[in-house]
Amino acid sequence: MTGPTPLTLASIRQAPKAVLHDHLDGGLRPATVLELATAIGYDQLPASDAESLAAWFRDAADSGSLERYLETFAHTVAVMQTPEGLRRVARECAEDLAADGVVYAEVRFAPEQHLEAGLTLDEVVEHTIAGFREGEAAAAAAGTPIRMVCLLTAMRHAARSREIAELTVRWRDRGVGGFDIAGAEAGYPPSRHLDAFDYMRANLAHFTIHAGEAFGLPSIHEAVAFCGCERLGHGVRITDDITDSADGPKLGVVANYVRDMRIPLELCPSSNVQTGAVPSIDKHPFDVLARLRFRVTVNTDNRLMSDTTMSNEMLKLAETFGYGWTDLERFTINAMKSAFIPFPERLRLIDEVIKPGYAVLLG
After folding, report:
1. pTM for this predicted structure
2. Annotated binding site for substrate
3. Which of 45, 208, 352, 360 is the most buried (most CB within 10 A)?
């Protein structure tokens, strides 16, 4: 073949991809939700077949409100309370991402939400990581190897963030790569959890923060200036600090700092539209931020709720903003540069997997 491969959904699936922002409880297979619900006697699902359930999740999440979007997780979390449920969901997560061409994935979840059946926090993490390892093995056997890393999330409206930070450090050499806080932003600023972030920094451990999704610039400012985050989960509202001028876009103090320090933005296009963070894909600030050379990355957020994959997200961006293979390669390398794994591993995946994979597609 000479010349670039045509950019289609099928060809994008062949491209090596890296995802930094994917929620375990937001990526279940609908059929798995049904089967696990039956196994544990959970009878509150809004639909009784996989197709209808998938449609319900998508439609319920497409509300324009982060708070209403988050309500859909009650059903997925409910079926992830047992060792069997956690292992299966984690295994299938790895298999599904690998089948979509993802070669590196950081998948996050909140252990504190999975204690209803009597598991301890450590047992929740243990079974989840075991599932990831099973999924990695299955993906390798299928010829689609993937590296899975777990991020532990604390809910920002709760009071267990220090405990989850300690759990993160305890498991960091056994499959956990970092820490996060998530949940409704309004009324729950990142600075409420300074004790957890201080602990992470004292232990030289990685962390990202959901900020600048449903709440504006103050959330980003706190996450960066007070909490010292390495990455911003979403961060789309950084555009509140970018104004138009006769000489082109003018960056304010926060936006300049985020760009200068190469703080990665974990952008999730479809999810950002669903939660009302942006009005539509064509109005998404991804392209503006990419052209201004922020370190933008492409992510899924919640594959079930958004009915999406990494390939779908990349195709939407390519069709909307005219991106080609070199652009998608740059966004993928941005993600790998920002990964919470040691530098030699990041470099190996970039040099031995990502660049060769895109070279084939570029012809």
Report:
1. 0.96
2. 23, 25, 183
3. 208
